[in-house]
User: Fold these one by one.
Assistant:
Number 1:
Amino acid sequence: MSNSPQDQFLSSAEAARLLGVHAASLKRWSDQGRIDCVRTPGGHRRFLRADVEQFSKQSVERVPKQPVESGFTKRLLKVLVAGDQPKAEAVLLDHWGETGRWERVGDDVGVMLEEIGASWLKGGITTAEEHIASETLLRSLARIRTMIPNRPRAPLCALATAPGDEHTLALGLCELVLAEHDWQPLWLGRFSPVEMLLDIIQRPEVDMLALSASAFSSTPSTLRGLLCRLGPVAIACQTQLVLGGSGAWPHGVFGSLRMRSYADFGVFLRELKAEGAAK
């Protein structure tokens, strides 16, 4: 029998740490048949290291999107381009009522935003229309957020873009997912310098820092350098770092967790709540 490191089997926690994701995400991908695993006699999953490394290189960057009901995206896009915020809020709330969770709405809106970007590149939508749609969506999300109450002493998650990144729509959707899972979002938004993020991480009332980076405004070296500054402080202060957006975040450094979808983020928050209730 080979003793090569490539032949080593990893637990779910070890494999997830290697990929830089939460174990819940890895288990979901395994259930979907996207990555192979074997079961121990006790029913625990074991992943071959070589499979995990191959998955990291080829698959983890492209998580398959769930089909979106086209009527939702068409209705939402129409009112967003028109700048009709009240109707945009109504469309979003109706879709939330149909899907049951803001994380599902978030993933569907993400698909729509990709469609807007593709349409803009092809000349199907003007720059002005794209700007109006984005701003109307952001204002709609912010207003809906005020409708979700938080209990006193709810855990606190700070939300910021990576320094230099101006795209905050992902944070607006993330804010709704957090609020729905009984977390208190702390909006930092864009243009937060590293020194401010370091200060936020060290505050005892802050349990998590969620950072978003787009593929167009953040280089891999910049994001790695950012985590090299934030990571050691986050570990020392026991503040969880969550990384989102389409940016090229490094995998599994300083205990950070890479979220590929709002559904993954929702699973992570529910597991945190279950772990807290079990203590």
Number 2:
Amino acid sequence: MKVGVLVVAYNAESTLARVLDRIPDATQLQLAEVLVHDDHSTDDTHGVAQEYVAQESDGNSPRFHLTVVRHPENLGYGGNQKAGYTYAINHGWDVVVLLHGDGQYAPEIMGDIIDPIVNGDADAVFGSRMMHRGEARKGGMPMYKYVGNRILTTTQNALTGLALSEWHSGYRAYRVSALAQLPFVGNSDAFDFDTEIILQLADARMKIVEVPIPTYYGDEICHVNGLQYAKDVVVDTVRYRLGRSGFGSGHLGHVAEPYAFKPSPYSSHGRILQMVQGRRPMRILDVGCGPGWLSKALTDAGHTVVGVDIAEADAVTDRMSNFVKADLSEGIPEEVGGDFDLVLAADIIEHLPDPARLLNAMAARVRPQGSIIASVPNISHWYPRFRITAGRFDYDQRGVLDATHLRFFTRRRFLRVAGEAGLEHVSFRHTGLPLDALGLSNSKVVTTTIGNADRLLVSVWPTMFAYQFVYEFTPWRGGALRNDLPA
């Protein structure tokens, strides 16, 4: 395999040559290239590196190809790595080892870092100073750094579900083909770049292996602002956790199923199940059924369900009596039939260019005494309001600000569109925060504290705190509007 080393160097004129000298002979024979990236140092780091290249073959010169690059401006720790990994990808490296030019990490054990990837056992290998109890402190790691490292690592493991002994070592190696699959170019240019790479590896389900490394703290200058670093890595990790739940752009973490089943009693699916609970077996049309989990719950309750969606999910036909593949922006296809007791549009009309057209088509499929239940996200919820007020408006992978939404609804706008489609509402429910999507619905602390507080706020001020509106309608027959629940 073509193994290369990226040496990130900044003001390392006094240590760089010794670091290169310490690469063992056996490891040198494995290396196709060593790339020294001088990040626009203010000392003579570049000169030292050039002098190292110019050494004659007198037994002291390196037995590896050495390339030296001086950046015309300082890219930052993360930016320096971005440039180096891009070089590795473009030059056909198979493995890239990250080595610091200040000597903090031992080149002598580089083989241990490389071997798991060469042997096909890992996509990334991280050196850990915490795998052997007490070794970090014996190696001179200051107590405040040790404590901070342990607190941050514990917090990040809890948020991500990983079990790394250390998140904050800069001694690591990557399979270059794995790096090429990650959107690392958009990562931070600062020191939290290392954390973002871990999060992206975890999100891509790539295999991470840790190996023990010695700890060394000398007189090198630390360029890390500890408090800023701690803030950055925690924010990154929270972004990952939210991304895995569908919030955010998905740069650090993304959700595999954008339209998951939400069974809790306070979600849109839960509210719909409550609204039909106790009714005799019905013939139901589930418009925009997605993977079909809501249809399955209704089928299990004794109803006959026909589903329609633009894509046929795996095994969706097993979750309902009939499935029809169709583009709902063009209406409901004739093969669906008609004469349904209930037509559902759970979280679908906001995805269509003409919601009223679909609502009209749904009304045409309902029996004289039948009804329609539709749910929409609330764009006036505090979350999008906060994002807009803070000047941080952007789309998420799902939720109120789902990037695939073509229409946004307040409650008034939703009812107006339904009225224009000839529908009158007969009952409604509101939903609170999507605890299901956040993976928190099984937490007793959350459901008894945050959940209860949120539901109280929803009942007091629904246009601000209701995450979704769920309404049942009947085709207008000239009667007075009815409300089963107080506004």
Number 3:
Amino acid sequence: MMVTHLPHFDLIRRVTLTLVVLAMVSAGCGGDTDGKPYAVTSTVVSHETTGQMTVLEPDGDGTWPVVYMLHGIGGTRQDMEQLGSSVAEQGNLVVTIDWDARQDTDAILLDLACSYNYGQSIAREHRGDPDRAVAVAYSASTIYALIAGTLPEPDIGGPAPEPCDIVDGDLTRPDHPARSPDVLVLIAPCLFEYQGQSFTVEPSGGNTDPQITIVSAEDDTTCEPWQQRDAVELLRQAGYDTTLVSVPDADHLSIVYRGEVDGEPVTDPDSAGGQRTTEAILDAIAAAPW
């Protein structure tokens, strides 16, 4: 018996084969085969020596770098949670920290040290690797991150409230801070001028190990881009490995997924500036000396 292959049957067969091949190619070229973006769970934690902190944990298998995020002046840790979630989705444990700008510099540094040390002490409970630590600071908090992140260890500027340090994995007296971060990401920093006040914030010296990335919003009228350009030059001259990332069409709020509606701050998860900042943080983590 002669079997005739009708043309439309051949077409269906070719289309089907093409779809199968495309599916195989798609699966073989990455896609979401590595689990990204991960779903992220949020947990609020605190210690008697700290304010509240939000832990953003990816649900995939792995031991993650630990990324600490500091909000700007007058803000809260929630301001950084959209950025934090975007970074956590890519396989990082993120901790957003509350801090009080009404204190003097020494008190702020000690409070941040307590929060950082506590986060380091619980990182493994959330599958974080405290030996791969990143500090991300925004706006006014960049001043304190730069000072604290470049301090010569073990000095943290004075005694902290007890218990506020980690020795052999336990919080105890502050004989030294937890291991300093290897990476600093400073987002839209004002390091020379703010609201008519002129100053110069310099690294503390003695610790040039951290790799520093400065993220600049090109339309920023709060902390103008010249400040970030000048900061990069200052840090490079001081011996720091420093990278500048300029974000076009971003202002002081949109660079961290923030915006305003009727004069009130809101979260903007679709912010192109925020997405570029996420990329800058991920690039800094990828380049870390681990």
